[in-house]
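2.7 Reproducibility. Because tokenized structures are sensitive to small changes in the input, we list the exact sequence used for HAD family phosphatase, including any N-terminal residues retained from the expression construct. No trimming or masking was applied before prediction.
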Amino acid sequence: MTGMNTSNENRRIGCIFDADGTLLDSMGFWQALPQRFLESRQIAAPADISKVLADMSLPESCAYLHQQYLSERSAEDIRQEITAMIRQAYAEQITLKPGVLALLSGLQEKGIVMCVASTSDQLLLEMCFQRLGIASFFEAVITPGKENTDKSGPDLYVRGETVMHTAAFNTYVFDDTLLPVRTAKKAGYRVIAVRDVWSRSDWPLMEETADLCVDGLVERDKIFAFMGVNKNSKEF
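Resulting structure tokens (single pass, no recycling of outputs):
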């Protein structure tokens, strides 16, 4: 685990935020995307299509849609169409979840450094953050890139910790899904689980695993209290 050597650096506090479902109110879009795509092709989508595709990568999902519903279209054509739908959503539609701007502003005022670790596309996230006015809060937006890593291992968090020059025990990870919560906790980070309606079935396990669970980033005072941040001063 990457850590800093001096006492000043060891006291530096950082936050690593997930994007979709934590900062961005985007999970509903992702859940509806397969059905919307099929309906745009005049194909009646089964009710469980999102669950069927949930654990597939985008290329795998497109291959499945090609095989099951659109044999006349190549998987690559399907990928391009779906990618265009995703790009439009991040460029124009997706919004912040409640409380995000206030929390980020408050953390910045306290001198706490922040970054984003997400498995979504980096350019799309950066474009969306610029549109929503939160890009300047982050030291970096960290994504797998060409490395095929996901949140089953701590690589993205280690990269975030390195960028922010923080130690793991002074780095807080915010995420709305169970796998990253477990990964970050096991790797020695302080974990704040954010309850999102789309992960409702995992809430009990998230509560067992995380150091703190909140109903959203709107619970700024609860988050500040857990982090030991005095909301009325820059002392922490």
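The two ends are 24 Å apart (CA to CA).
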